[in-house]
Write a sequence for this structure.
């Protein structure tokens, strides 16, 4: 990690970034390798194979009906709920049409729980058992495996209370012991809290100079040791052991505002999918891999890449042209 | 106006009480003027905003499959191409549509929330935000927010009051529509557990039941005029043997741990309605004898509908 510094600005530096990323990846000998080697397109796999890896998923048909489709056996089951379905870490949810409630659906299509949050859901994150929801009214809701409320309320604030309340991003460690959120305006905080019984204890907070006003990505690594948060200031890494945060090391400045997704690889690695804001770079995406905040490698992706699965040391990435597998090895 | 603000902090019911006690256009316009500014009345509501029944009106049963809840927004047709900020505020939240970086789909579509100094937040959904809105964090009255994006220039508005953690019915804050159509009572039933008792025969006003504890289920809605304008249900009242036993308003829905509390009933909002979309009001003992049950519903333009049922209890 590099120490706190000026916020990286997005903008016209994209060409430099891409060139720098390529040079960095080739010359700096990062400790990760993608096989097939960097610059190749991966090993094609069939969409069916990708689907089987992904497991059952919720789909919406043209009429808006939601179906549970399982590519492993070709089955398709109608889910009698309305809303917007989404899947994360193998779990399936349906967000209510007004975005003020959600339901979790089991792998067999049964309703596990359904809950009305009352305020607009702006962000969410999952631990191994719980789900965490950020709301427009500035509160977070931690729901247990059966939807029971484990915590509901605002995060402990920093020294200066925010003038306006809203949650822009949430993260929760896999063990559920640490919760993080980007919340508030004037000022906006990145706050990290530990769970103690029914309450939250502030472990770390940081004022963000360039407040985000839309949903941001936050993700803990698989081993829960650190967190990456997309913020208006740039991508910030937080170490759970030292309780300190710093901007992510970057192959070049300029990418941090365009985080499209965060993925936990094995251990302490996180992959950050970024896409250029610059229209001249439209159609390109990159996957940057970090271990404990240190940059380790970059994988260029198609601009339509959207689905990423992690299975062991393999990355499965699907885009409009098909699905590909990349082996990730440590040098 | 400062006095009004103080009352509003004390109770969201203030709006309803004032609207019922002084149903004048000027009072409502004044209320809205300090909350959202007269410009917003004119630009959003002043020219005929047509709310269609059953498609996103405050307190109306959402009829999508399995999604049983009451709506906190009103939807309408915007006459102008642009939705303008009614007064100075700050961009609180913006949802661009599609899937957000945290993986959440935009179920409500594109959305813009504006926060005001006094703790109110207006949430517009179904609009296309202007492209540079996110960069323009501070908004002045009259600044364009975006264009109504849904088919037929429809968009929805919800108003959140942080002071009382409630979604306020925007209709309370609107200038009166002046519509004269009466609301409609489609059905009254007496409900106990899974058993329900309706008037025997279409034209009968008698329900025969055994003595016991019952809730009253009411299917009611506001009727649009020929031009499609409606103001929405404002209040439901039940009078049993001349005594008012229920008087509940659609003024605000309080956000609590279990969700939305409409009509002063426990959250979530699905608890206020049954599977048929009927409002389920107050459980009470109905003793043996002959009782008169009057149900009166009001809309925000002061129109009423009333229906009397005789309960023959043995």
């Amino acid at each position: 990690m590099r120490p706190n510094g000026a916020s990286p600005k997005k903008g016209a530096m994209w060409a430099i970034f891409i060139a720098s990323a390529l040079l960095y990846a080739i010359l700096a000998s990062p400790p990760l390798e993608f096989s097939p080697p960097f610059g190749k397109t991966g090993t094609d796999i069939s969409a069916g194979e990708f689907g089987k890896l992904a497991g059952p998923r919720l789909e919406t048909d043209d009429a808006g009906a939601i179906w549970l489709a399982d590519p492993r056996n070709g089955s398709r089951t109608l889910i009698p709920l309305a809303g917007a379905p989404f899947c994360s870490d193998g779990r399936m949810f349906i967000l209510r049409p007004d975005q003020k409630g959600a339901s979790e659906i089991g792998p067999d299509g049964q309703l596990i729980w359904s809950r009305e949050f009352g305020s607009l859901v702006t962000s969410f994150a999952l631990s191994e058992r719980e789900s965490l929801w950020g709301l427009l009214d500035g509160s977070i809701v931690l729901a247990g495996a059966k939807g029971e409320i484990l915590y509901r309320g605002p995060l402990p604030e920093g020294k200066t209370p925010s003038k306006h309340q809203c949650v822009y991003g949430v993260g929760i460690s896999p063990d559920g012991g640490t919760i993080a959120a980007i919340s508030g305006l004037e000022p906006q905080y990145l706050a990290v809290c530990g769970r103690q019984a029914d309450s939250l204890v502030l472990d770390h907070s940081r004022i963000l100079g360039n407040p985000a006003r839309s949903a941001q990505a936050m993700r803990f690594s698989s081993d829960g040791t650190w967190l990456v948060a997309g913020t208006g200031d740039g991508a910030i890494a937080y170490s759970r052991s030292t309780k300190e945060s710093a901007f992510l090391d970057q192959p070049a400045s300029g990418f941090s505002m365009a985080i499209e997704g965060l993925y936990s690889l094995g251990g302490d690695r996180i992959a950050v999918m970024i896409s250029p804001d610059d229209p001249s770079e439209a159609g390109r995406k990159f996957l940057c891999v970090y271990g404990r905040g240190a940059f380790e490698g970059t994988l260029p992706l198609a601009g339509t890449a959207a689905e990423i699965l992690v299975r062991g040391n393999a990355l499965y990435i699907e885009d409009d042209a098909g699905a590909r597998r990349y082996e990730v090895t440590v040098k | 106006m400062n006095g009004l603000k103080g009352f509003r902090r004390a109770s969201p019911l203030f709006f309803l009480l004032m609207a019922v006690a002084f149903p004048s256009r000027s009072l409502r316009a004044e209320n809205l003027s300090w909350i959202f500014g007269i410009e917003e009345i004119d630009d959003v509501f002043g020219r005929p905003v047509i709310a269609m029944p059953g498609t996103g009106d405050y307190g109306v049963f959402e009829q999508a499959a399995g999604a049983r809840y009451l709506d906190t927004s009103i939807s309408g047709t915007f006459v102008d191409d642009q939705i303008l900020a009614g007064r100075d505020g700050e961009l609180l939240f913006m949802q661009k549509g599609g899937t957000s970086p945290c993986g959440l789909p935009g179920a409500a579509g594109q959305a813009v929330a504006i926060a005001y100094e006094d703790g109110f937040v207006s949430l517009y959904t179904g609009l296309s935000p202007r492209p540079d809105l996110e960069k323009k964090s501070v908004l002045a009255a009259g600044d364009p927010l975006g264009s109504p994006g849904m088919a037929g220039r429809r968009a929805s508005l919800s108003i959140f009051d942080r002071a009382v953690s409630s979604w306020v019915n925007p209709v309370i804050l609107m200038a009166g529509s002046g519509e004269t159509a009466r609301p409609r009572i489609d059905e009254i039933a007496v409900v106990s557990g899974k058993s329900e008792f309706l008037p025997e025969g279409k034209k009968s006003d008698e329900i025969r039941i055994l003595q016991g504890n019952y809730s009253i289920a009411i299917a009611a809605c506001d009727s649009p005029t020929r031009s499609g304008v409606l103001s929405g249900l404002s209040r439901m009242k039940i009078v049993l043997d001349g005594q008012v036993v229920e008087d509940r308003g659609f003024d605000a829905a309080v956000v609590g741990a279990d969700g939305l509390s409409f009509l002063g009933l426990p959250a979530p909002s699905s608890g206020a309605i049954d599977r048929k979309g009927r409002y389920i009001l107050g459980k009470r003992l109905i003793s043996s004898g002959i009782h008169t049950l009057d149900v009166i519903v009001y809309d925000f333009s002061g129109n009423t509908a009333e229906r009397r049922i005789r309960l023959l209890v043995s």
Residues 1-56 of chain B have pLDDT under 50 and may be disordered.
